[in-house]
Amino acid sequence: MPVAKLKEFLDDNGVPFTSIVHSKAYTAQGIAHSAHIPGKEVAKTVMVKLDGRLAMAVLPAPLTVHVDKLRRASGAVSVELAREEDFRRDFPGCELGAMPPFGNLFQMEVFVDPRLSEDEEIAFNAGSHSELIRMSYKDFERLVQPRLVAL
To answer: Which CATH code is given to the segment(s) 3-148?
Structure first.
């Protein structure tokens, strides 16, 4: 989803947001540093496969996905981190690894670590490695309707 489409989706749903342009960064912690945002407020999207189907695990930048916790919470038999070639074609217009956490727009289930809900706002990649969107967590939750799971 190109940045323009994401912004249009947010506008169409009456969601106020801020666009933050920053120097190119490829890790969530690097993005937080570059954008001068605490890492715990940057939501990184990690692609996973649950019984062979793609899903998104969304968590604060400093954390990692615990596959066993996700397996128990999702009820999946098999859970693994997805490889880039598993999802490369699923996000047209997005730079690889910079997908926004809107799995609902890609017919994918979204699992969110509840620690992201502790802050009023979250920031996330907007489809590129040089732009973030910052918005209220409550609006994100309303639009995406993720499953809260301690990841």
So the answer is: 3.90.960.10
